[in-house]
Specification:
Elements (H helix, E strand, L loop, with lengths): L1 H36 L1 H11 L1 E7 L5 E2 L5 E13 L9 H8 L3 H14 L5 E4 L4 H9 L7 E10 L7 H4 L2 E3 L2 H6 L8 E3 L2 H5 L1 H4 L3 E8 L5 E5 L14 E4 L3 H11 L4 E6 L6 E7 L13 H9 L8 H4 L9 H10 L9 E3 L2 E4 L1 E4 L5 E3 L1 H6 L3 H13 L3 H10 L21 H8 L6 H4 L13 H13 L2 E3 L4 E6 L3 E4 L4 E3 L5 H17 L3 H4 L7 E7 L7 E8 L6 E7 L5 H4 L1 H13 L5 H9 L15
Helix pairs in contact: 1-2, 10-23, 13-15, 13-20
């Protein structure tokens, strides 16, 4: 019995020894196989087990003016990152203190990074002062999961602020990072202006780099793999604008901090030479780490500096509509250049409508020159009595009103060109009549346009009937070398005839020459043709308009100026427009007396102000 038990024990011992020998044999064989025969395959993988992969963003593209002046560039700043999987939260207080960040805010940043990704580095603090950055970096061994990188922030070296042109950047939120594989938490993306519209072009692509970590996840510095394993981030494309930096800065100086807008444009192709919405904002205070106090200030400012008045301020055009009325009236066969309409000082239709133009007989040319309301009241009455309101509205849309212009600044107001559908919405079906339509003929009532729309329609008058697309970007430079010239449509409005434009040109030229303030406007050698407008405002001072082009014989520039609550357009907006035309065509201005008028101008008391034009 004992002999049998002993034999069984020996058998089990041999089996166990055999299993152990086989196990260690297989393990040894596999070790030799990996270390010797498959070294080239597994050696890179073993390296990567001790490495962390970090995605890095390419440099954002530079923005130049039409003459090559740098308008927007990049400035390096120091950034501290966090990789949540490796981070020790016991370091919260110490790191927050070093970064001078409130502990509650710091914890929120850590949690936000964790929600984004536990394994990917996220920005913990940007634009860190060098002293704080270097202190953390020197003690990086104490802070597992904390990383360091240099990033860029926008810098604006030119005199031109152009805040509504460039727009600003803000950190992408969680939703934006999840919607795009090329955007990481902490990345800055465009939120307005060209920075928003061209963000995919300006923003550089993503690259990769590895850094070594120890068993605690502490960074041991960057690790360079073979060149074919590292992907450098592609740089963002550069943009060349149509903007002239000197002209832009001068326009900003003339507009000051008053509410309004100014546009200078090439009527032949829609290239914008200057674009100002005032008041504006200081982009340098939004370029890096968010200045929360300033951000709150500009968001609550009653002057609404974030609002782009060039593309979104939709107001009645006043008498600046009269040249377009003359063009449409001729096409509809309701007037000719020789049609004479007498002005007695009032126009009677149920009640008296005032006309401040001198009494007398008016042709189309003189009606535009002296801004006769009677002429355009009668024209609008003919349109309304013949049931052609919708036809009239369609022609205005052909000329660029009541629709988006396509400017490369993103959202814009369409304005209001009232047709029968719109009138029914406002007053009810068949509850409106001639009395509600008559004011439309002089750009008042339920009618509104934006400054950029008026620039498009004035360009059409200047260039012989082509509706251009206003734009700010002329070229795209890829990889710092390849230049792509961008093109924009300019559609010929088929029904606009050269013969119909002649009296419009003459009337607008005469309007500047015959103005009671021609001493502020007229530069004989520049041949400025223009029209002012004063838009009624039931809630305060009226708004001033001026639209013009020059030289009338060979138009090279169009200017539109809008002064919100500025009163008469002839004294509030037109002097600015005249100087901008002079600057655009000659490169300089010598009329300091006009600048003094602009600097000292105070809008009249609305209780004493008439709602018509001087010009």
């Amino acid at each position: 019995m004992k002999t049998h038990d002993h034999a069984q024990v020996q058998l089990l011992r041999r089996i166990l020894i055999g299993i152990v020998i086989v196990f260690w044999g297989v393990l040894f064989f596999r070790l030799v196989q990996i270390q010797v025969f498959e070294y080239e395959r597994y050696q890179p993988l073993s390296q990567k087990n001790a490495l962390r992969l970090e995605t890095i963003a390419g440099t954002r593209g530079t923005i130049y003016d039409k003459n090559g002046v740098i308008l927007v560039e990049n400035q390096p700043v120091f950034t501290v990152t966090i990789t949540p999987i490796d981070y020790d939260t016991s370091n919260n207080s110490e790191i927050a203190s070093t970064l001078n960040v409130d502990i509650e805010e710091f914890v929120n940043r850590v949690e936000r990074a964790r929600r984004y990704s536990r394994h990917r580095p996220s920005v913990l603090a940007s634009e860190v002062p060098f002293a704080q950055y270097s202190l953390l970096e020197e003690n990086r061994w104490k802070y597992p999961g904390i990383g360091f990188r240099q990033q860029d922030k926008r810098n604006y070296p030119a005199n031109a602020r152009a805040s509504h042109v460039f727009g600003y950047l803000r950190e992408a939120d969680l939703e934006e990072t999840r919607a795009s594989e090329s955007i990481r938490l902490g990345d800055k993306i465009g939120k307005s202006g060209l920075e928003l519209v061209y963000d995919p072009i300006l923003r550089g692509g993503l690259g990769e780099r590895y850094y070594r970590v120890n068993a605690l996840g502490q960074s041991l510095g960057e690790y360079t793999l073979d060149s074919n394993e590292r992907r450098n981030p592609p740089r963002g494309d550069d943009l060349v604008l149509t903007i002239d930096a000197d002209l832009q800065a001068y326009a900003e100086r003339l507009m000051g901090t008053t509410k309004g807008a100014a546009v200078v444009m090439d009527p032949s192709n829609g290239a914008i030479l200057a674009l100002v919405s005032s008041p504006d904002i200081d982009l340098s205070r939004l370029a890096g780490r968010l200045d929360r106090e300033y951000w709150a200030e500009i968001n609550t400012d009653s002057l609404t500096p974030l609002f782009n008045r060039v593309t979104s301020a939709s107001q009645p055009p006043g008498s600046t509509l009269k040249p377009l009325m003359g063009l449409i009236g001729q096409h509809m066969g309701l007037i000719t250049p020789e049609t004479v309409i007498p002005n007695t000082g009032t126009y009677r239709l149920g009640r008296d409508y005032a006309d401040l133009a001198p009494p007398g007989d008016y042709t189309l040319e003189s009606a535009i020159s002296f801004s006769s309301n009677t002429y355009f009241f009668e024209l609008m009455e003919k349109i309304a009595r013949q049931g052609k309101l919708d036809e009239w509205a369609g022609y205005l849309r052909d000329l660029g009103l009541g629709q988006s212009t396509g400017i490369d600044l993103g959202s814009e107001s369409r304005g209001i060109v009232p047709d029968s559908t719109r009138m029914n919405q406002l007053f009810g079906a068949r509850r409106w009549g001639l009395g509600d339509l008559i004011n439309l003929g002089i750009g008042q009532g339920v009618f509104s346009v934006t400054p950029i729309q008026l620039a498009v329609s004035t360009s059409l008058i200047a260039n012989g009937g082509h509706r251009v697309t206003p734009h700010l970007v002329s070229e795209r430079i890829e990889s710092g070398e390849t230049r792509e010239v961008l093109s924009y449509p300019a559609d010929k409005v088929s029904w606009v005839e050269t013969s119909a434009l002649e009296p419009i040109h003459k009337g607008m030229r005469s309007a500047v020459q015959n103005s009671v303030v021609s001493w502020l406007l007229e530069v004989p050698e520049l041949e400025i043709a223009g029209k002012t407008g004063t838009a009624q405002n039931p809630r305060g001072q009226d708004h001033g308009w001026f639209t013009a082009f020059a030289p009338v014989s060979n138009p090279q520039v169009v200017v539109v100026v809008f002064r919100e609550n500025g009163g008469f357009g002839s004294v509030s907006a037109a002097p600015i427009g005249s100087l901008l035309i002079e600057k655009a065509l000659t490169g300089t201005t010598n009329r300091t007396y006009v600048e003094r008028h602009i600097d000292t101008y105070v809008p009249p008391d609305p209780d004493e102000e008439e709602s018509e034009d001087d010009l």
